[in-house]
């Protein structure tokens, strides 16, 4: 079973690129982030024509998450991260697909830091940690753009990112506390010592220079981790015409 995450950076602008990648790779489940589209503008007809059913949580101009499943409808189990009834940002969606609980997330960027956006990021992270504790006993995967650079190995020239909200100590600490619950970072597990990136900025020829970041993660629960056989980044997708600034990331599970 192949499960992927892909920050598309606008489902409207990137739909052709998404459909091309879906046709080429045929993942079983895909978590999308940054739809940047209201609920009624999600291109469900094109997604269904590609062989996928979907649930999505849209938001005009910003954020937005979705879960796609090939040949079946994801069974929604949650929409919006619990813990703050006043939070209107579309950043979390959850579903069962083929007996696996899928948590699709788009964690806040948090810049500029310090400041209100950084405070929101930390509070959102704490809510996530509280919620994921309840998922650990299930075969579960957390998939998405975490906006967290876990370590110096995960960033080109880490000294330039010390004050950035993606790399500040508070954020990395929250990420490692999340892992300490029992989650397995699939990509790092399969590539323990490799510089492997999932995001390259549009500016300064970042992709051409391989000046990237690893901020898109797939975390496996304790019962699912032993089934992990492969984890990769489809980095060539970032090099195509009119790409997202992220590349798809995926795992294969022997389930």
From TrEMBL:
The keyword rRNA-binding does not apply. Residues 4-246 form the Endonuclease/exonuclease/phosphatase domain. Its EC number is 3.1.11.2. Its cofactor is Mg(2+). InterPro entries: AP_endonuc_1, AP_endonuclease_F1_BS, Endo/exonu/phosph_ase_sf, Endo/exonuclease/phosphatase, ExoIII-like. Pfam families: Exo_endo_phos. Keywords: Hydrolase, Magnesium, Metal-binding. GO terms for molecular function: double-stranded DNA 3'-5' DNA exonuclease activity. Belongs to the DNA repair enzymes AP/ExoA family. This is Exodeoxyribonuclease III.
């Amino acid at each position: 079973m192949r499960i992927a995450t892909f920050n598309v950076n606008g489902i409207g602008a990137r739909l052709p690129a998404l459909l091309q990648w879906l046709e080429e790779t045929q993942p079983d489940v895909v978590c999308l982030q940054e739809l940047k589209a209201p609920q009624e503008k999600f291109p469900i007809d094109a997604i269904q024509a590609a062989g996928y059913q979907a649930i999505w949580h849209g938001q005009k101009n910003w954020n937005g998450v979705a879960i796609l499943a090939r040949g079946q409808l994801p069974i929604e189990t949650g929409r919006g991260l619990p813990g703050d009834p006043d939070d209107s940002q579309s950043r979390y969606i959850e579903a069962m697909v083929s007996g696996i609980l899928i948590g699709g997330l788009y964690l806040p960027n948090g810049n500029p830091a310090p400041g209100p956006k950084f405070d929101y990021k930390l509070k959102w992270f704490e809510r996530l940690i509280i919620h994921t504790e309840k998922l650990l006993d299930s075969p579960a995967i957390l998939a998405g753009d975490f906006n967290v650079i876990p370590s110096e190995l995960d960033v080109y020239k880490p000294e330039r990112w010390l004050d950035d909200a993606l790399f500040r100590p508070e954020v990395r600490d929250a990420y490692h506390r999340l892992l300490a619950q029992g989650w397995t970072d699939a990509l790092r597990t399969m590539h323990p010592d490799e510089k492997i990136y999932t995001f390259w900025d549009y500016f300064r020829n970042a992709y051409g220079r391989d000046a990237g970041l690893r901020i898109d993660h797939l975390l496996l629960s304790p019962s699912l981790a032993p089934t992990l056989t492969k984890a990769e980044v489809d980095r060539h997708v970032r090099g195509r015409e009119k790409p997202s600034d992220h590349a798809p990331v995926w795992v294969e599970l022997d389930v």
